[in-house]
Automatic annotation (TrEMBL):
The keyword Signal applies. It comes from Fodinibius salipaludis. SUPFAM superfamilies: NosL/MerB-like. This is Copper chaperone NosL. The keyword Signal applies. Keywords: Signal. Residues 1-23 form the signal peptide.
Amino acid sequence: MCLNKIFKIIAVLGLLLLATACSQEPAVIHYGSDECTHCKMMITDEQFASQIVTDKGKALKFDAIECMAVYQRENADELQGAIRYVSDYNQPGNWLKAKEAQFVKSEVVNSPMGESVLAFPTEEEAKKHTSERPGQLLEWAEVSQTEM
């Protein structure tokens, strides 16, 4: 009886470990030491960082949203089920799902790769940004398909 209980506990712990091992939550980016998966530059600016977390839980980190967009286009078949995250421009380190974020292609703010794509959690915040600094509002579908 006691041995059966131990096996059940081990099975439950194994399932919990398996579930956490495949987490699709954003990974920690070590600024100043992690390298961009696409361009191989060091990731230094958390306002522009982004990442793709695969369905197996592997985090692919990027120094700019445009690097993630290019990588996605070039590797679409391998990224089925992956979640794309972008850093909130106004609150760096706050991860937003790319499909839910609002983007601005800024005319005055420069991103690490020079395409100047910024992410905001809402259209209202993006519009506020463009009312203060020139830029164009974009959705993720536009960002991910634009040749940069």
